Inverse folding.
């Protein structure tokens, strides 16, 4: 199934969801490891470069995902969902998009504050810098902001996963299954 319906996600939405989820989780773990475990060295710059490259690709996936969501609609929550559940789902998704985009754009700006600007994605495609400044204070401010936003994304992801697991194990509905594959929702 290509298109989203009122009851299920189409395969493009599912693929973009899991590509984005994998990229975000890898970036969160790698970012923490890179800033906490690797001493300042040339190896750290290589890791920053790889991190930025994956971040650029995440940005592309997020834009595609948002465009698909806007063009294809969103499946409704199951019958019997309470008002607070609908509000929490909508707010959670909005915050997840907002903070993921914010962390990505701040990371993109941060890439222009490095001694060697980081401009390539994983496929070698060049991204123009959106900000260039070699002032150490600007770099540190962007780096701290990027970290805070990443931690906020991590918290929202934990809540998102908890909500999905609640739907699956406690409410026993198809909210989680329909993001795994399109046919599961109708089964």
């Amino acid at each position: 199934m290509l298109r989203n319906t009122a009851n299920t996600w189409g395969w493009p939405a599912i693929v973009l969801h899991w590509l984005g989820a994998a990229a975000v989780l890898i970036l969160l773990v790698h970012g923490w490891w890179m800033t906490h475990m690797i001493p300042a060295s040339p190896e750290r710059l290589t890791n920053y470069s790889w991190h930025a490259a994956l971040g650029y690709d995440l940005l592309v996936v997020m834009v595609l995902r948002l465009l698909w969501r806007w063009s294809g609609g969103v499946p409704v929550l199951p019958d019997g969902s309470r008002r607070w559940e609908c509000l929490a789902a909508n707010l959670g998704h909005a915050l997840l998009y907002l903070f993921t985009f914010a962390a990505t754009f701040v990371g993109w700006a941060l890439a222009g504050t490095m001694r060697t600007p980081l401009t390539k994605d994983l496929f070698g495609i060049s991204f123009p810098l959106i900000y260039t400044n070699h002032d150490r204070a600007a770099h540190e401010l962007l780096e701290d902001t990027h970290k805070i936003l990443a931690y906020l994304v991590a918290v929202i992801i934990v809540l998102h996963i908890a909500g999905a697991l609640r739907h699956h194990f406690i409410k026993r509905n198809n909210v989680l299954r329909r993001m795994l594959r399109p046919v599961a929702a109708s089964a």
Observations:
- The two ends are 14 Å apart (CA to CA).
- The domain at 11-185 is CATH 1.20.950 (Fumarate Reductase Cytochrome B subunit).
- The helical segments are 11-36, 42-72, 83-111, 136-170, 177-180.
